[in-house]
Amino acid sequence: MGAQGNPPPFQGHRLATATKSPCEKVIRRDIARTYPEHEFFKEKDGLGQESLFNVIKAYSLHDREVGYCQGSGFIVGLLLMQMPEEEAFAVLVKIMEDYRMRDMFKPTMAELGLCMYQLENLVAEQLPDLNQHFQSQNFHTSMYASSWFLTLFTTALSLPMACRIMDVFLSEGMEIIFKVALAMLTLGKEELMSLDMEGMLKYFQKELPARAESDPEALMQLAYTMKYNAKKMKKLEKEYVVIKTKEQEEMAELKRLRQENKQLRHRCEMLEEESRALADRLVKGQVSRAEEEETTFVVQRELDVLRHTHLETTHQLALANEKIRSLSLMMEETQTSRQSSIEEITLKQEQLQQREEMIECLQEELVKVRLREAENDALIRDLRSRIHELEEDKKTLREITPDNSVAHLQEELIAVKLREAEANLSLKDLRHRVTELSNQWQRHLQEHKQEPVNSGEAHSTPKKLLLWNWRLKFK
């Protein structure tokens, strides 16, 4: 058994609180749906839900083969209503290992299938009409009885009734579950015979439990009257094992045959593909052979033509070589001429660059001269304004001051007029220089149009020389 070798139940429960279970998320999800209306389990993350979580988690760690299965939470919840966590865990371990419930909750659920087979045979024997009706509606036993066996009627009946069945179950084992199941089917036989599959499902969910709860004592008395033959149940168990073994063998044989069939189909497809490939190769080979023969004939004719063409080409090649030699000589001459042309172009570019520099220099000097002319005009205006002021002052002084200060003012007026005369001369000189610059600019434009070539000027620096000459003139 998968649970053998584990620590004792109480010790296993204590160890579970410090160990993480792979089923924790599923357990947390399901405990909120376990007795949601009961006061002990109603509060989320309350004492009841935590106790339920601890016990289920402890068992999932205690028996890792079974782990956690939906339905076990209702059994644990019923136990926690009667006892503390440690005792509930111990009773759960006992129920699982000694009352066939461990095999019921294994991943294969083989024990549940056996119970369904045994119950179906009991129904066929004791309630043949109802069994025939179930078969006519294709209503399988697992559709209504699975939860009865997985939860021991804790989800189908009220808590007092479920507690009573649990007491008998702990005393007599799985026998009471079969008897209660037969008793409930007997109670609802008349109604079930008149319902279809959907109606029967609804009847098993609501009306049948309510009818059983209306008289719990009558249900238990009826359950005790149900026939249960342990030897026959063992015989049914052996039959079920044989049937399942045969089904497994048939499934294995069917799986093997399907695999072989798949392999044979694959092999047939491969052979057909090879056959098609061989046929294609044969046809292609015959076509290629005919094409090769035709190609050989064509190539032979082309070869004769090529031989004749080769002779002509050889003669033409000799003529072409001679022409190449003459062209090479012409290219050498052209290269020499091209080199001299490049030198001339380079020289002209340099001259053009020098002329552009001279133009820029003349433009700069012209701007400077015009600026000085504007400054002199402003100076003359200032001097004239000053003379006018002095003349006004002179008139005023003649009226106020004695004759000896008149001579002083006349001398000052003479000095101002001298300065005005010097400024006029300077302005005249500047205008003359502007005229000279304009004439030089016109001459430069005419020379630029004629494009004279002067090798001596090509290597001079006209901009620097022109600047130097103008500076000497203005000093």
UniProtKB/TrEMBL annotation:
Keyword annotations for this protein? Answer: Coiled coil, GTPase activation
Database matches in InterPro entries: Rab-GAP-TBC_dom, Rab-GAP_TBC_sf, Rab_GAP_TBC_domain
- Asked if Coiled coil is a keyword of the record, the answer is yes
Entry coiled-coil feature ranges? 244-281, 345-447
Any one Gene Ontology molecular-function term assigned to this protein's record: small GTPase binding
Q: Which residues form the Rab-GAP TBC domain?
A: 1-173
Its source organism is Callosobruchus maculatus (Southern cowpea weevil)
Q: What is this protein called?
A: Rab-GAP TBC domain-containing protein
Query: Coiled coil as a keyword?
Result: yes
